[in-house]
Fold this sequence. Notes:
Layout: H1 3-17, H2 28-38, H3 51-54, H4 56-59, E1 65-67, E2 70-72, E3 80-81, H5 103-114, H6 122-133, H7 155-165, E4 181-186, E5 192-195, H8 216-230, H9 239-249
Antiparallel strand pairs: 1-2, 1-3, 4-5
Helix pairs in contact: 2-6, 5-6, 7-9, 8-9
This protein binds heme C (2 copies).
One heme C binds at residues 43, 49, 51, 53-55, 66, 69, 80, 82-83, 85, 88, 91, 94-96, 103, 106-107, 110-111, 115, 128, 132.
Amino acid sequence: MSNVSRLGVLGLAALISLGGAHAASPDPTLIEKGRALFADKSLSAGGVIACANCHPNNGHTDNKSYASLEVVADGDPKGRSTPTLWGAGTRSVYAWAGTAPALEGNIRGIIVNRMKGAEPAPETLAALSAYVRSLTPPRTGNIADDGTPADKAPAAVKRGFALFTGPGGCGACHVPGSFDKAEIEDVGTEGKFKVPSLWSVSQTAPYLHDGRTKSLAEAAKAMWEANGKKIGKPSSPSEAQLADLLAYLNSL
Ligand code: HEC
Ligand code: HEC
């Protein structure tokens, strides 16, 4: 197998993009070691599950909600929706509770608490983290790295961005660029949670910490209404506004 086909499209895209935002010259050998560990069930108690089981397709999401290692119904208050790890190397904060400030510590917690595995060696955490940092989200070409629409983006996408940063109020929490922020927020979902990044959001259903919402349209509408309540100006998006907002979100 050639190196290129072994890396896969995402790995290749990640390598190509290394000249850009993450110029900390990642070590390809460490990334490859991390990729192997990511598929290694022996990190879990009894060797039952690997990272890649829940984050298949090069660290993406299996679109399921879990309590520990059990799949639970979406919306179960004990369940947590599996996030994509594409782009997870640069999140402002980790875990739905927003409690893990660093990637290494978050991964350690998953191995020890969720997978009930042995305390990982620092080398194991370094390799897994290097692998996760190599997973940049695929871009649609319609949105620049700072979150602004490209010149060639359809008009609906540009109108959607104006709503996102304007009347929708989204940009105050989902700060364009990272589309997240470090502070946890209450948006009427029974508690304060991390502000999730929205890159690749069209592919990460179900939505919200417990996976209670299946469709992106429903999630975006609920967010618009939650923001209105929060700022004391209740409103719902019109059908046309929601369509434009979705055109933007689907381009991320
Ligand atoms: C049983 C399924 C499952 C397995 C196995 C699993 N994860 Fe996850 N992962 C999840 C779920 C669910 C969450 C969200 C949990 C939360 O935030 O409370 C998550 C969250 C994460 C996050 C945080 C992402 C963010 O943006 O906050 C990282 C990083 C991560 N996993 C990496 C890994 C690595 C590395 C492994 C292997 C050592 C692994 N996961 C194994 C299901 C899994
Ligand atoms: C006050 C801060 C805040 C504002 C304003 C806000 N959000 Fe959110 N958003 C959050 C938080 C916090 C969550 C996670 C809540 C949870 O999981 O229960 C979230 C979750 C989401 C999700 C689900 C993502 C996923 O991976 O599950 C989408 C989609 C979303 N927001 C879009 C929007 C849009 C579109 C707007 C504007 C109309 C908006 N948000 C406004 C804080 C905010």
